[in-house]
Amino acid sequence: MFSRIGVAARVGNRALSQRYSNRITAGPSTRLAHTATHLDQTLSSIPKDARVVVVGGGIIGCSVAYHLAKGGWGSEVLLLERDKLTSGTTWHAAGLMVRFGSTSETSTEWRKYTHQLYQDLEKETGQSTGFKPCGFIELATNDAYMEEYRRVSAHNRKLGVDVQEISPEQVQKLFPLCSLDEVIAGFYVADDGRVNPVDAAMALAKGARLHGAKIVEGVTVVGVTQEKGKVTGVRTEGGGHVRADYVVNCGGMWARQFGAMCGVSVPNQAAEHYYLVTDKMPDVDPEWPVVEDPSRYTYIRPEAGGLLVGLFETEAAAWNVNRIPNDFSFGEIEPDWSRMEPFLERAMSRVPATTKVGAKTFFCGPESFTPDLKPILGEAPELENYYVAAGLNSIGILTGGGVGRLMAHWIMNG
User: Fold this and answer.
1) Which of 9, 62, 84, 213 could form a disulfide with 362 if both were Cys (CB 3.0 to 4.6 A apart)?
2) CA gap 267, 263 in Å, rounded
3) pTM over 0.85
4) pLDDT tens across 169-189, in order?
């Protein structure tokens, strides 16, 4: 099975990379002239002053800019992105939008707000987020999981999330291809589901612009200027400078090395994250819910006529520990088949029909994680008015709205 999947997946990976890349195929002199012209045009579009500069145009940066602009700072908000919006991690995120799962009231409130925001943004901006309330089921496969998820459910219900404990038979009715091996119960939220991460980020960016913010792509921030321990602006590639009262590091997997430029410690690290997308499966209904099974390290949902099988293996592999390449955009990592095969086999056994078809893609891309699996948020102790919003530990999409609102409130109101 895996040799057949391997060939198909490698072809699919190339197609996926080509779909999102913006490579110039002209000769060297043409490329150089194009780059110089683009840089001149970009630099001329950057304002000389801003109240706040947001660095990084993924889901978190777009959300912070949106909430700052909507909160009243409007045209005083500037977002700078080194390449294209979403080109780091956001573009390849799986897009789960679930409120179930946390015993933190703060995290649950972020999720609730984000869940509603992704529905409201289309009305506000005309840009769809791809939100699909198809439902979400967490599988409990032993007594320990039952105890944990009943505790989580009670907490979530107290905060207004309608979690239902359902039988294995009800699980299979909602997701007919799901094997019931070891399943004791499911914990079901009918109106959770998924979004399109790129569309969600673009809706936030459009909303930010509608409220007056300026977003400039193709600009690399190479330093933060300061005076007497306080932010005074940013320096950009090509010798530019923007005066600013605040800087927000939303650099994702680059946040650590960007922070280090001005002595700010941001302890996050990029790690490999995998998912497989099967070929089309005639029995799959695109309206089926997302199913998550932590005992098999997986979440599974419909995707492109087949199924997406996401993986969270027990021992992840760090990627580029010393430095993330500055030019890594819409990129992928060569999958480590030998390391991942046992996890993939166990994950696919939850829906055995996935083992009977080929794969369009076995995708590996970097996502950033922190040592304690908690996000890095707030003003840096090393530098006044330097804020960090990074290290979202693979839940940036489903908490992004709430995190952006929190950061904006923090910056604007203290």
Assistant:
1) 9
2) 12
3) yes
4) 999 999 999 999 999 999 999
